[in-house]
Amino acid sequence: MQLLGSVALRLRERFAPPAVLTHLHRLELTTAWHLNIFRKELNLASVRLALDDLESDIDAGVWHTLNQEPAEVYTLAETLARRHAPSLGTRTLDTLHVASQCCSTPAIL
Question: Whole-prediction pTM value?
Answer without folding.
Answer: 0.72
